[in-house]
Amino acid sequence: MKNLILVIVYAGLFVNMSFAQESSVYKINAGDIIEVSVYQEPDLSKELRVSEKGEIAYPLIGNVNVSGLTAEEVADKIDNLLDQEYFVDANVNVFIKEHAKFFVLGEVSKEGSYELRGPFNLIDAISLAGGAKENADLANIHIIREEELGKKDLHVCLDIQGRDFLIKPFDRIIVKSYGKISILGEVKKPGSYYYKQDLGVVEAIAMAGGFTDIGSRNKVKVIRKIQGKQRIINVPVAHILKSGDTSRDVILREGDTVVVPESLF
Known about the structure:
Layout: H1 2-25, E1 33-38, E2 46-49, E3 55-58, E4 62-65, H2 71-85, E5 92-98, E6 101-106, E7 112-115, H3 122-128, E8 141-147, E9 150-156, H4 158-161, E10 172-175, E11 180-185, E12 191-194, H5 201-207, E13 220-226, E14 229-235, H6 237-243, E15 257-260
Parallel strand pairs: 6-10, 11-15
Antiparallel strand pairs: 1-2, 1-5, 3-4, 6-7, 8-9, 8-10, 11-12, 13-14, 13-15
């Protein structure tokens, strides 16, 4: 029993130390909610949200810039400002009650809001949401960002910019799905399929189960709409499969239709 009590005590100390360590390292962001208290001054105990400019409005001293400071540094700053005119030693404490949030929506495993605990890049954010689904268009992720002049819609490619793109408070990360392509005719599983980047006709046919016994490998066509007009592209799949010359394959676009006709022989 005594050992159990010691374990619980040590566990509690560990948790408290973890919170203390986080508070001493974490840099306050816009959108965070902090609690400020002054010893024996209940009227100066306030719960405040950090503005987009990184400021809090505190009694007696007005606006105070706290962005980029730790809780301890904010306490020292308010302490010094109060001591200049109102107190001999204010004894200020600051506690981070709630971190700013960002949102991940769309084609991820766990949609929802997440706390912005320190610097997060876009890859971190997608990972926190359980990763992207198979049909997610990671080359065109939308980030709706609140700025002083209004909302801004940013488009980011995860592979190219994901590590360098830092998340800001209240960002709405929207992961959309790819559009679809159609694979029709003499394939084993005709129908609609999610498009993916760099998808060629040969791979698309394999995705649809491959050719049927009467499917013509010589007359595969891609039907594509360009500015309202229909264009037909012939794809020499038989040659590609026989020679391995993938340079003659056609990279598909969203909305394309692949047609495999019946062989006449």
